[in-house]
Specification:
Length: 90
Amino acid sequence: MAEREKFTISGDQVVARVKQLIHEGNIRRVRVIHEGRTVLEIPLSIGAPAAAIGIMVAPVLAALGAFAALVTECTIEVEKVGETGKKEGQ
């Protein structure tokens, strides 16, 4: 089963935090939520090479940067692949 974590951060930190989460490598999905609405959802394939993910997500990060400049605070919800999820699937 996937774990979910939520972070509330200021708008100017959104892109840096999303990049950091993507580089962790065990992320299944990233959602950016503002005022209770999902503004952006980034599905990430598990096990894909980091370079391919970086190329694929670059335009999305540019759009996210434009959005982040307009808001003061938003929530990032991260769906991670947990170790328990991998064991149950075996």
